[in-house]
Amino acid sequence: MSSSGSSPRKFPHTEGNLNSDLISFLMELAEYENIVGRNVFKSNAYKTAASVLASHPKRIASGEEAAKLKGIGKKIALKIDEFLATGKLEKLEKIRGDETSTALKELARVSGVGPTKARQLYDEGITTIEQLRGNPEKLTHHQRIGLKYLEEFEQSIPRAEIEALEGALRRSLSALPEPITLTICGSYRRGKETSGDIDVLLCVKSSLDGNATSTEDPKTAKEKHGKKFEDKNLLSRIVNLLEQDKIVTDTLSLGDTKFMGVCRLSDDTPHRRLDIRLLSPDQFHCGVLYFTGSGLFNKEMRSVALSAGFTLNEYSIRPVGSTGVAGEPLPVTCERDIFDYIGMDYKEPHERNM
Ligand code: 8DG
Ligand code: CA
Ligand code: CA
């Protein structure tokens, strides 16, 4: 999320929600704190409050009532009171009229331009997208591609298009000699009707166990291979194949296990942001859990894990001893195992939309 920045499409779905006016002013403040204030902590506090209201079944009548909900503090309650009483927020009126804030927000629309880069550009006298187009030398490769497809990347992706793309990806990958499993995660896996980008997780059986020689202790083998794939070129072979098949059109960055780029289903559909991760079988389920999100759900789940004595990340779940040192990764055969370890009721992907 850090690299894509905050954009309107990230806002919770507010249409028809009883508190949609409150949610949208909270998300506007979250965006302001992220891009202009560069305060992730404050930004997240607003995002959490917005998400709490998005899943609240009743219309909020006062700040006091809102403050009773977990995730909404006193300061936000005061803003809710001000909004309910006057229909607006003094702070937001100021922000909207402020040229610096407006310029920074505008620049941060570009994929790859985060709060720091936006500020740097602004300090160099760049305040509009048009000026940015006239000064491409100020941008990295990623940011240039972000600028090139600015309007296309801002269009949300219908579910049916991702379904079709999933089929196209599978057909393409079937040309590889090694069997690969493909799971599209992110908002798509959470059942959303539209998505901001496409998050693809790939898993191959060719890594750790397959490559350790029979006399090698598996633990030594793991250390030696550093959890990387023996075939360092696998992901670039995959990307080449997707380019040949006219699915991938541009590369933003490519490593051994992570690809960020651009794809297109056909000449009639917009260019879309595509993220691909290559995971080994032992990392797969923690990876699927993490990349399914939502980001706020992950945050919540990690804190449940910590209270239960585990540390959870995109690769593994590990017990944390009384000394605070994390132990070896625990065996995981499905997502449910992870919920079981930490004593949390299993949630289907569509129940993780917070
Ligand atoms: P969207 O693309 O439709 O807007 O929503 P999304 O699929 O939920 O968001 P995403 O930005 O594509 O991220 C995919 C998942 O990755 C997200 O659901 C949860 C996980 N994730 C975190 N933290 C972060 C982070 O800091 N950056 C990114 N890129 N992903 C993160 O939990
Ligand atoms: Ca996504
Ligand atoms: Ca993504």
Automatic annotation (TrEMBL):
**Active-site residue list:** 79 (nucleophile)
Q: What is its EC number?
A: 2.7.7.7
**Gene3D superfamilies hit by this protein:** 5' to 3' exonuclease, C-terminal subdomain, Beta Polymerase, domain 2, DNA polymerase beta, N-terminal domain-like, DNA polymerase, thumb domain
Write down the chemical reaction(s) this protein catalyses: 2'-deoxyribonucleotide-(2'-deoxyribose 5'-phosphate)-2'-deoxyribonucleotide-DNA = a 3'-end 2'-deoxyribonucleotide-(2,3-dehydro-2,3-deoxyribose 5'-phosphate)-DNA + a 5'-end 5'-phospho-2'-deoxyribonucleoside-DNA + H(+); DNA(n) + a 2'-deoxyribonucleoside 5'-triphosphate = DNA(n+1) + diphosphate; a 5'-end 2'-deoxyribose-2'-deoxyribonucleotide-DNA = (2E,4S)-4-hydroxypenten-2-al-5-phosphate + a 5'-end 5'-phospho-2'-deoxyribonucleoside-DNA + H(+)
Source organism per entry reads Hyalella azteca (Amphipod)
Function comment? DNA polymerase that functions in several pathways of DNA repair. Involved in base excision repair (BER) responsible for repair of lesions that give rise to abasic (AP) sites in DNA. Also contributes to DNA double-strand break repair by non-homologous end joining and homologous recombination. Has both template-dependent and template-independent (terminal transferase) DNA polymerase activities. Has also a 5'-deoxyribose-5-phosphate lyase (dRP lyase) activity.
Entry cofactors: Mg(2+)
Cite the source lineage: Eukaryota, Metazoa, Ecdysozoa, Arthropoda, Crustacea
Q: Name one GO biological process term.
A: double-strand break repair via nonhomologous end joining
* Entries under SMART domains matching the protein: HhH1, POLXc
| CDD domains (UniProt xref) | NT_POLXc
User: Is the keyword Disulfide bond assigned to this protein?
Assistant: no
The family annotation for this protein states: Belongs to the DNA polymerase type-X family.
- Domain DNA-directed DNA polymerase X: where? 17-353
Annotated PANTHER family? DNA POLYMERASE BETA, DNA POLYMERASE TYPE-X FAMILY MEMBER
Q: Which major enzyme category is it? A: transferase
Please give one Gene Ontology molecular function term for this protein. class I DNA-(apurinic or apyrimidinic site) endonuclease activity
What name appears for this protein in its UniProt entry? DNA polymerase
